């Protein structure tokens, strides 16, 4: 008589009504399960099969839940400015020079620590487990906060030489460097992150872009990222005004100009790119560069994403692309679920084509696509054996999930991050019952409110409503 094989021990088993893997076959398991040992996924499959193969030290059994990979925020500033305080009526370049840059330049190390802790807590609350910070100051205060949160991150030092196509008018003296010093600062950023030595935090080469950086600095950043196998991050082709400035100065559009000077390669991440033409799309695809699409920012700052965006073309060209939410006053939220909805729906209306971007593609952009864009897909972005156990459990007992026939449709068209119940990063529970297991959230809110008011006083802005306050 054949003896039954003993079950293999593991640390945790998660069971759910639906398990969305985003693996190579894009399998979805009905009544599925994920087995975790240490920080790693041991197996994914039908719950009955997983239970037969493994015995767990702890279990998360949620028969009505939807489980998916941790989401990825491809563009999330920790250099912050007070949410809801930005004066109305400015486009991208006006908002940057009138409010955002002055806010950034007013921050002290203790302010950055507060903002980093609050931002990571908010992202986790909405199901994000990996993010890209496109350049911060006071990084020594930021890195411990990220490590404490448990999140994965790409991060570098904010760098510019203020020698780009937009000129210096309206730019603060803050961190003003000549090109050589700016390049050295980029190198220093890589060294600082690597010396910090945290397995979940990887360095980036972060320049501001968006008309503030010289060609020499832009090329040096791309080369440094390639040599160091990191990621060169910049804001690029963020509005028609930026396109017009660079056409006038260089005779080329911003993305095409980057290609001409040799500043695009597989280690380049372009943020925004809301104003493209067919040659721009080809330049990005041909060089292997990646993209973070930030749709709510594009809408709030009137970037023209529906008029000039090429999102279906970028997807068709196979460009690795994720989604981002930018800073507080650009999206006013950090919810990748909401970004997925806009990524699915805006191109359909712009092209009057209901097939422009599918629901499945939108969900992929928020998970594996973002991990690929940030060069983190070796460890995260999908639920697969051998990858890190970055897992999100959605509570489906709410109107945005019910009735539940196709969870991909629910995710792409109606769900928000507020229905995220549990989050694991590397097998560690960092959110349970919609509450942080890491931070005192009430204290975080008090800290960020106090910090906001201090910074607003420094830059002379009192963000009252336009309507009379009695």
From TrEMBL:
It comes from the Bacteria. One of its GO terms (molecular function) is hydrolase activity, acting on carbon-nitrogen (but not peptide) bonds. Pfam families: Amidohydro_1. InterPro entries: Amidohydro-rel, Metal-dep_hydrolase_composite, Metal_Hydrolase, MTA/SAH_deaminase. The keyword Hydrolase applies. The keyword Hydrolase applies. Gene3D superfamilies: Metal-dependent hydrolases, Urease, subunit C, domain 1. Keywords: Hydrolase. This is Amidohydrolase family protein. SUPFAM superfamilies: Composite domain of metallo-dependent hydrolases, Metallo-dependent hydrolases. Residues 66-430 form the Amidohydrolase-related domain.
């Amino acid at each position: 008589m054949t003896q039954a094989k003993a079950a293999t021990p593991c640390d945790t088993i998660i069971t759910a009504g639906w398990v969305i893997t985003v693996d190579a076959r894009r399998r979805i398991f009905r009544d599925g399960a994920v087995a975790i040992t240490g920080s790693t996924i041991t197996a994914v499959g039908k719950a009955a099969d997983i239970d037969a193969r493994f015995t767990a030290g702890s279990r998360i059994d949620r028969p009505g839940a939807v489980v998916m990979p941790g989401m990825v925020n491809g563009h999330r500033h920790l250099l912050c400015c007070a949410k809801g305080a930005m004066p109305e009526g400015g486009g991208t370049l006006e908002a940057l020079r009138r409010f955002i840059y002055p806010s950034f330049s007013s921050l002290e190390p203790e302010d950055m620590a507060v903002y980093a802790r609050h931002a990571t807590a908010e992202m986790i609350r909405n199901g994000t487990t990996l993010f890209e910070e496109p350049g911060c100051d006071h990084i020594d205060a930021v890195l411990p906060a990220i490590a404490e949160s448990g999140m994965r991150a790409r991060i570098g030092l904010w760098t510019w030489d203020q020698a780009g196509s937009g000129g210096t008018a309206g730019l603060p003296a803050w961190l003003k460097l000549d090109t050589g010093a700016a390049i050295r600062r980029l190198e220093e950023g890589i060294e600082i992150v690597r010396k910090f030595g945290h397995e979940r935090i990887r360095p980036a080469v972060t320049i501001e872009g968006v008309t503030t950086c010289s060609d020499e600095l832009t090329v040096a950043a791309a080369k440094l990222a390639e040599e160091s196998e990191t990621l060169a991050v910049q804001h690029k082709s963020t509005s028609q005004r930026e396109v017009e400035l660079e056409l006038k100065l260089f005779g080329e559009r911003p993305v095409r100009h980057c290609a001409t000077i040799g500043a695009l390669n597989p280690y380049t991440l372009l943020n925004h790119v809301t104003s493209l033409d067919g040659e721009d799309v080809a330049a990005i695809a041909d060089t292997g560069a990646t993209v973070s699409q930030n749709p709510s920012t594009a809408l709030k700052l009137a970037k023209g994403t529906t008029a000039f965006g090429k999102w279906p073309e970028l997807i068709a060209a196979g460009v690795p692309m994720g989604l981002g939410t930018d800073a507080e006053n650009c999206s006013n939220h950090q919810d990748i679920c909401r970004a997925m909805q806009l990524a699915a729906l805006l191109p359909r209306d712009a092209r009057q084509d209901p097939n422009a971007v599918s629901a499945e593609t939108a969900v992929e952009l928020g998970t594996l696509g973002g991990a690929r864009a940030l060069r983190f897909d070796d460890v995260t972005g999908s639920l697969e054996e051998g990858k890190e156990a970055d897992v999100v459990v959605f509570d489906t007992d709410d109107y945005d999930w019910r009735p539940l026939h196709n969870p991909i449709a629910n995710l792409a068209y109606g769900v928000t991050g507020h229905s995220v119940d549990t989050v694991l990063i590397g097998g560690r529970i960092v959110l349970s019952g919609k509450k942080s297991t890491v931070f005192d959230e009430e204290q975080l809110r008090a800290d960020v409110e106090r910090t906001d008011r201090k910074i607003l006083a420094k830059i002379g802005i009192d963000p009252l409503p336009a309507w009379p306050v009695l």
